[in-house]
Design goal:
The protein has two domains: 284 residues, Ribonuclease Z/Hydroxyacylglutathione hydrolase-like (Metallo-beta-lactamase, Chain A, 4-Layer Sandwich); 84 residues, Arc Repressor Mutant, subunit A (Orthogonal Bundle), CATH 1.10.10. 32% of the residues lie in helices and 18% in strands. The protein has an eight-stranded mixed beta sheet with strand order 1-2-3-4-5-6-7-8. It has a five-stranded mixed beta sheet with strand order 9-10-11-12-13, with no helix packed on it. A hairpin with a 6-residue loop joins strand 2 and strand 3.
Amino acid sequence: MTGTIHPDVPSGITVRRWGAENGDGLVIDVDTHGGPLVHGIGVEPPADASRANGPTWAYVIEDDGVTLIDPGHLGSIDFLADGLNVFGMKPSDVDRMVVTHGHWDHDGGVAEFADASGAEFWAHELWAAYSPYSYGQLLRADKSPLRIEMTRIGERMRDTGPRTYGGSVTKPTGNGKSGGGRDNYEAMRSSMELDRGIVDGFKHGAIEYLHTPGHWPDEMTIKLGNLIFTGDHVLPEITPHPSMAYSHPTDLSASLPDRYKNPRDVWGLMAYLKSLHRVCQLGTGLTIMPAHRLFNRNQFRMTDERRAAEIIAFHLERCDALVRAIEDGYTDLELATRELFSYRPLTGSYHLMSAASETISHVELLEDTGDMVVHDVEDGDGVRLELTGSRHYRDVIRELIPD
């Protein structure tokens, strides 16, 4: 970090190499109090990927071989390999790579790293079920009024040009900053096969894998002693985006194991809040090792299991804010979204769609608790949000917040 003062380093963290103020290129060791060796690498995104959340933190665990958690974006392999080199490893030293969930900044680098290392690819078994489906396909396959309205909002405000996600389908040459797009990422996902589909409670050596859906249906939290690797399930500084309560695509639903038949168990805000509650119950004095914001603005942002309770409380407040917006007359989905997110500009279709999907996740929870009804506007576009007068959601969510 040329020209800056090194920040205080928390107990349990040893810095092997300093990086940028957002954590790009930072390499650390993590104390496990006599357990397996653990390292962390702030894997920089490729040049054409979003930098809003900084690097994807990849973690290396030396236990019964070498496990790599979350290789990062498509196009980031050179940054990852450079980080491995700091503690004397190369890609071929890795026995298995595990992704916490199927988003481009976590599983995007799987194909490149498999090619470079020969490592096995592990993920939750739902990763394989959903890998053939793009976000757009999931949205279009769900014919609920809310999903149709969200699509209409996006089409009305579509940005010019595609949003890119980094990388190429083939292994890049040079510095790993080669460009690409969403099609490249989706082609990679659909071509990969799991070497092991993980189920809830699976243990390997000292590592335990827990299914914690809600941000995405295949999200896992990985526990090693007093460390919890949370992917995007629990993050410092920011609240992870809950998924909408999708229905399973028709052609997929019939083939899913019975434990996933009910889409509400893996999709939507309620599934997410229940998974956060589960993290709250894992113990006390635990250290969260997140996929983003571990280090930001030149400071370590360490947190513990109490952060999960804070996020549950945040969503209770957001439900309250949505209710107030509707009481104030913002009964149209887009208007309610803009009121709910009035603290930030929603100037492009991506930002508006992202905000609308989060609004929808709260609307769906209020529907499920009987506190809201969504009306499909007859002879016109859009939906109308109506409160029923009850506030059952408050008790439902409060029960998930530890005392």
